[in-house]
Each structure stands twice: as structure tokens, then as C-alpha cells.
Amino acid sequence: LQVPHALSEPTGSSESRRFANKYSKKALKASLTLGILLGMFFVAWLPFFITNVTQAVCGCVPAGFFDVLTWLGYCNSTMNPIIYPLFMRDFKRAMGKYLPCCQRSGEPRPSAISLSMRNSNSGPRAAMSLKNVL
Known about the structure:
Elements: H1 13-58, H2 63-87, H3 89-98, H4 112-119, H5 130-133
Subcellular location: Cell membrane
Organism: Centropus unirufus
Membrane topology: Multi-pass membrane protein
């Protein structure tokens, strides 16, 4: 016996598939960014740590080579602020909102009061306005 396939798909099926596809693309992009960051971290710092252990065991690592590996790790730290905006649109948008050099024309800069209120999770209350407090 063969089981017949459904003749028609539910109306919400294509919408839920589109919703799942959108978030799977975001998850894939986030995984890619994390993979790149971790890969660069290991490429930059793993030789330093291996050399550090080797130096402790045999003492045969030249000081200049050790310095080069240390600076390779430091260069990795300078690459993170470059990698995040390249691969994460949300990060780029957030930095553009708060850094004066990256703002788009026509966007108002948030004030220090609005930033502190947003960060403290305390918005204006019905009985108390910001003018009354200041």
C-alpha cells in the first residue's frame, strides 16, 4: 500500500518556511563569524603558547622569535574590531549609531540621558517625567 501525499500545503507553510530560512541564514552567518574569530585566535595565539611551553621545558627559544609570536597575538586583538563590522550588520549598525565618525546623515545622535535611561532599564514613568526629575 502506498500512502498518498498531501494534495495541498497549509497556507502558513510557505511563510513558516521563509521565517525558518531567514533565521537559519542568520545562524549560519553568526557561525561563520564565530568560526573566523576563533580560527584567527588559534592561528595567532597557539604558536605563542606552544613556544612558551617549549621555552619552559628546554629554554631553547630565541628571544626575538618569542617577541614576534607575542606581537602576532597582539595583532589578532587589533583584527577583532575589523572583523566584527565586516561580518555582522547589527554590530555595524550599533557602532554607526554611537560613534560620531560613523553616523549617517540625518540620524540624530542619542543623548547621554537617553543612553543612561536605556541602559538602566528605567524609562520615563507615567507619574514622573524627565523634566520633573532634573
